Amino acid sequence: MGKHHVRIYRELPRAELVGVADTDGSVAELAASHDTPFHQDYRELLAQKPELVSIAVPTSLHREVALAALDAGCHLLIEKPISDTLDSATAIIDSAKERELKVFVGHVERFNPAVIALKDVITSGKLGEVHSISNLRVGAYNRRIFDTGIILDLGSHDIDLISYLYGRKAESVFALGAARVHDYEDHAAISLKFAESAAGYIELSWLSPYKVRKMFVVGTEHFGLVDLIQQSLIIYDGKDWVDTGLVQREEPLKLELASLVDAVLNDRPPEVSGEDSLYTIQVALAAIESYVKGEAVHFPEHSAAPAYPAALNANDHK
Ligand SMILES: NC(=O)c1ccc[n+]([C@@H]2O[C@H](COP(=O)([O-])OP(=O)(O)OC[C@H]3O[C@@H](n4cnc5c(N)ncnc54)[C@H](O)[C@@H]3O)[C@@H](O)[C@H]2O)c1
Fold first, then answer.
1. Does the pLDDT of residue 311 top 80, yes or no?
2. Pairing state between β 199-205 and 187-193
3. CA–CA separation, 134 vs 232, rounded Å?
4. Quick one: pLDDT band at residue 317, thresholds 50, 70, 90?
5. Which residues line ligand 1 (CB under 6 A)?
6. Alpha carbon 263 to chain centroid distance?
7. For the chain, which domains are there?
8. CA-CA distance, 285 to 279, in Å (whole number)?
9. Of 58, 125, 140, 227, which has the most beta carbons under 10 Å away?
């Protein structure tokens, strides 16, 4: 993931790439190809006090690198999920607050133009009342992912997306999951219950030879279908499938990094904050607990349906 950050920072007119760090020395070639200094120890890079640091190390190392970068006075983009434990995520958020630094979390699907269009369509009421959103995210397992199961790794995208589209937090979760080819769960099915009987369903698998990233949205008036890979949104209006024509295709990571550079330069709040990602891992970890125990996990504190995302209110978007 880090190599994509490097490429895009080089392309963004309002960002200047000041260096790349990786314990793997072969990444020096990547740095050279982008004409930027390489460090095998990230602390050398932090010593230069960059304004903003992207952290794309394995999830279990986010805490160590994030706390060091905050100590060096840097705003952060941490790849999703923010961390693999609530304790680490909270430590990162608290440290950033103490230092008045921003934490952005790379829930990149939020910047997928098909999701942006879907949010508009749902908010405008075109689908009617939405009471079910189902996400299908399957594909082959990549051995590179060694430190988390599929619920934290991929499910965090869908927990975030579904909660964002409903504009509220889940009240309970029930999940099935098991491991066949990985040390942690590599396939799972998650059910989320929201206020007013709205539901979220997430099917995840690393056992599929075929890659699918789709969202099915059931509204009382229309049915929406998003293909996150193709960046398409079509709607069944009761008679025909209609292309909304609302999707302006663009690389989601480019939109994400442009948005965060803008937020740093203009002192705006993050589109996806540390608190938002803390919520997603809270639900993801509860889903893991649910499949292990075979019972639902309830979040009584979410029953008051606080707005989601947590960091923004309507005025922040104006
Ligand atoms: N937003 C997304 O869609 C998305 C997609 C893929 C990965 N990710 C996230 O990005 C993060 C990295 O995933 P990846 O697939 O790129 O993993 P990866 O294994 O391909 O890359 C991780 C890199 O970190 C380096 N590294 C390890 N320890 C380090 C240290 N102490 N200091 C500096 N570098 C170190 C490794 O050498 C490697 O080059 C994970 O948190 C993952 O969840 C997000």
1. no
2. antiparallel
3. 16
4. very low
5. 1-2, 21-24, 27, 42, 56-59, 61, 79-80, 106, 108, 144, 153
6. 18
7. 2-107 (3.40.50.720), 109-249+274-317 (3.30.360.10)
8. 10
9. 227
